[in-house]
């Protein structure tokens, strides 16, 4: 389970404060040292950890007093608040266009789970009463178009493709026209993934962006790659600009470092998390629920 070891360590560190009637600065300092180590072991970005601990310390020794809580409980509340802040406080939803269709561009590196997640998102939106259209713009990976068609078939959402001989910008443009004619109110474009970020890929994504002016550019990241995922997010944010992240494979990520770092490093929210391979295993990301999962 995600955050399993972090949860245990944080609860252990903070548990020591719980029963105390009075907290010395030393008590807080010792607890914060353990919190810091636990976050680093969970693969949270170093700078994020440093800032986090500093903020908690300032608030904890800064006499933020609530009569209803013991000093130990207050520190726990502050850690909970700051964990929540770290992940963006409140849930970030998809921003739908005022006049449909809403255009969502999915991007990410190969293997991150982009195609699967594209299908999952279409399925989720369909359940909410939308009429999505999937668009196959990955013309480079031989099986990509077929894979999207299979996924679309499983969730019963149509897939627009023009094979692999057309330029992805033209495909995206034609798909939007097609979607408008057919009453599709959400158009989800599956773009090409590469093994690494390269200029050519970024240029292509930029060209698609310029052509279709998406309402949302969502970056799909593999949680299990930890700080590498954070670096990929930084890079996409700087080169292309993204609206949010979908973090996949959180079901297999015991540490949770990327979930705790992405928002703080890129200032962009995690909008959904992938919790399994099945096409209904995509969940909205709730920072507050995640924080309480960590602190128990
Ligand atoms: P793409 O290359 O980015 O399009 O990646 P795919 O959609 O082909 O996914 C790569 C692999 O990750 C597949 O085996 C998926 O089943 C798997 N996958 C995707 N999302 C999740 C998830 O949330 N949890 C788990 N456990 N596996 C996932």
From TrEMBL:
The protein in question is named: Signal recognition particle protein
The top of its lineage is: Bacteria, Bacillati, Bacillota, Tissierellia, Tissierellales
Which keywords does this chain's UniProt record carry? Cytoplasm, GTP-binding, Hydrolase, Nucleotide-binding, Ribonucleoprotein, RNA-binding, Signal recognition particle
Protein family according to the UniProt entry: Belongs to the GTP-binding SRP family. SRP54 subfamily.
Tell me the domain comment.
Answer: Composed of three domains: the N-terminal N domain, which is responsible for interactions with the ribosome, the central G domain, which binds GTP, and the C-terminal M domain, which binds the RNA and the signal sequence of the RNC.
Answer yes or no on keyword Ribonucleoprotein: yes
Q: What is its EC number?
A: 3.6.5.4
> Which chemical reaction does it catalyze?
GTP + H2O = GDP + phosphate + H(+)
Organism whose genome encodes this protein: Caldisalinibacter kiritimatiensis
